[in-house]
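Re: the multi-chain job from yesterday

Posting the exact lines I submitted so nobody has to dig through the queue logs.
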Amino acid sequence: MKKRGINTVLLHAALLVGAAVTLMPLVWMVAASFMAPGEANSLPPRLLPAHPTLQNFVLLFTRLDIMRNFVNSAIVTVLATVLSVLVNSLAGYAFAKLPFRGRETLFKTLAGALVVPAQVGMLPLFLLLRELGLVNSYAGVLVPYLASIFGIFLIRQYALSVPDELLDAARLEGAGEFAVFRLVALPVIKPILVTMAAFTFLSAWNDFMWPLIILSDSGMYTLPVALANLVGEHVQDTELMMAGSLLTILPALVVFLIFQRTYVQGIMSGGVKG
Amino acid sequence: MTSALFVSRARPAWALAAVMLSLTLAAGCARREDAGVTLRFWVMGREGEVVQELVHDFESRNQGIKVSVQQIPWSAAHEKLLTAFVGRATPDLAQLGNTWVPEFSALNALSALDQRVSASLVVDPADHFPGIWDTNRIDDKLYGIPWYVDTRVIFYRTDLLAAAGYDRIPGSWDAWHTAMAAVSTQGGPGRFAILLPVNEWPQPVIFGLQAGSPLLADRGTRGAFAGPRFRRAFEFYLGLFREGLAPPVANNEVANLYQEFERGTFAMYISGPWNLGEFRRRLPAELQSSWATAPMPGPDTDTPGVSLAGGSSLVVFRGSPHQEAAWKLVEFLSEPSQQIRFFQLTGDLPAHRAAWLDPGLAADPQAAAFREQLENVVSTPKIPEWEEVANRVWVAAEQVIRGAATTDEALADLDADVDRMLAKRRWLMEKKQ
Amino acid sequence: MSSILDRNKARAAWWFLAPAMILLGLFFVLPVAAGILLSLTDFDIYAVANPGAARFVGLGNFRHLLGDATFWKAVANTLQFVLIGGPLSLATSLGAALLLNAKLVRMRSLFRTIYFAPVVTTLVSVAIVWRYLYHPRYGLFNFILGLVGIGPVDWLGDPHWAMPSIILLAVWKNFGYNMLIFVAGLQVIPQELYEAAAIDGAGYWRRFRHITLPGLAPTFLFVSVTTMIGFFQLFAEPYVMTQGGPLGATRSMVLFMYEEGFRWWRMGMASAVAVVLLLITLVGTLVQLRWVRRDT
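And the result, structure tokens for all chains:
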């Protein structure tokens, strides 16, 4: 009994230390974003602002026009989420429930393609979008998100569990395949669609390298790109940069906290099946 | 349930159509057009923050033209400009470091400005420093108008120099070297005569130019760094590190260079006009009478040293649909009154000589060294690959400084690498013949 | 009847797949194929202005890379990141998963949320935060080290410490993700195995080695392959924190590729680097697959 008690204490001590270490950078970021200019660069380093101020945020929204970047990120992310769920659910369902010749081969090819790093095609993709006139546009940023092999697999996996009897019953009633999908399968796979939406949202919101390449106008920058641009000019303004970082992270954290359960489920189920 | 179903195999096509529609809308949403002309103007660094003020006056004088200023940090400027060019998303006009003008003109990205200049009442070549004006002439055409000028001179502590027995920076390499040794001895351990960040190319390149090296050979298609004149300059530069007169540090290793200058960690520093403002702002009041600037010493006693013909130009991109309006903005920024205002806001030295008559600038003792030096500046090779070649030069220096190679090895490697960088240029020139 | 339904299904399948396949084909397959082709040319900025200025050079770019010290340094840096950061990240994830999964834990989901939080943060943002944490004078890390009497470390300015600093950031950022996968893997291992072993007198470590680890083997494979693929693509951290320095110590392969392609516009060469990355990733995946197959 005593051993169990000590073990519990040790266990929770370890967990608490881990939590502190994990949270410490984020806590400092929040604290520093409310500090007056120069305060974050003091010795010894301060953990709490002496007189919390909103001036860094004000500066971000007024002179540095970060609202525009916020809106850009929001537009791109929402569009990416909606469109990719649409496109990938159709494909995932087809792989799961619509047999056709060559389905297995196509599936295996796609699985192999997962190994290919995105960077191999980045330069030609840039040139292709240039020809299409999509450089420096929302569409240009969206393009890599629309179809995702990972998303297709995720949905396929889940869609396998839709009972065939239900689908066949609907078909026997005379429904076309799309109607079957929309009315029978969709309600059943909704949870995985929510998971996928959460994944895509976070991934699109946080993306950096591609928007960096495709967007040239600072008025079009998404938040991560705007932030990197800011640090080039304002590296000595620690508090300002912390405020910008906080603003960028906040929506992602909020979305995560809201969809936590389904998001975590998605990761855990995807990983075990492998 | 039957009533709710309808046969439609074409539905998924709607999904594709929805995607395409969204993409088109999204593509369209990218460019917000105003009525009238909006000029997109890219500016770098501190200039970007300041130019907004000047631009307001331009807008009030020119109703119907709006200017959207975009500020880009210097560290990302080169790649952003090139990316914009490749992506066909260049702004209407931009500030361009004048060492980049050859690159962008080779790409056919810039509009030639000769006709506009001959017709202009504001822009007159005679009003500009010849060395600087020349950096914008590529193949007998003019591609940029100098906006502000930059060159490198020596910033130094007059008191530390005096303590070592000198009242000014000597005029030749040998004498200067002796002076530095004296300052270093006077300063004691832990203190240096001069700060020369190892990851910067202007210093070794300036010495090379002073020694008369062409830097490149064969019409700019091969490296000439292993040649005797550059070698002499390179040895002089490296000697300063070897003898402990300069600390072997990179510019991002110096926590705060102004603090170190104040503390006397080093007594001399080769830098540009932006530091006039910075030194005045960041050094304490007591120290303001103890620092000065001087033109570069030359390799031999009687010749003053040349320095870099630096600075930024204003360029108009060929792809801009608003050539007239963009040129108006260029003219506006070239007016002496605007040049003076700009100088007051940034400390950047005006390209327009008339602006130097402004009492504020004319009486400025520390700007005088720049005035003198600007009459004696030389441009770096006007080739598109210069940025990359220049960056390779400091890598060679760093190799020797950190003991990773001998001078001969480093220079041979440098030439080999430069030859490789210029291979395409060589091939294109041979093809032309 | 069923064959008509089957034919309907097959036909519908193509419609359902069309959007995704067209998009993938146009914006993934095509560029990747073009990238491989580009790697065989000397396409550069001159060629952008005038396509006639591009030459087919066969394996010339690859031959040049083989002799380029900067490239090899980038490969070495990336390998250092993968081979040290990878196992470190996995070990941390596993450790966290074991802690979280313990029977006696209370407030499990709170801890899980906290440990997972770094995963959803924007990399650029946290890279900037950590850049300040790593500041030699004012950063929190050196302050804490100072409290225990260890002298200040120049985290991002010292060539020996720069990559470890980035590794530390990457581990912090990513461990939560694999932690979840490990938790799922742990939960699948039947409890009876542990109970039987306990009855047989096996201590914690023996149970760990003989039940937990083998039970996690498929999970390990999945996690280590995906982590490796991800780590090979190291880019944002060095771009934001060190620009590849100091002395090229943090220039990863993707950063090198970005510089070749988007800074110097040597697009043929940059594509060659990407192809090398692809080959290394492929080899790494195959090696791990074979390793596991040999064990089982």
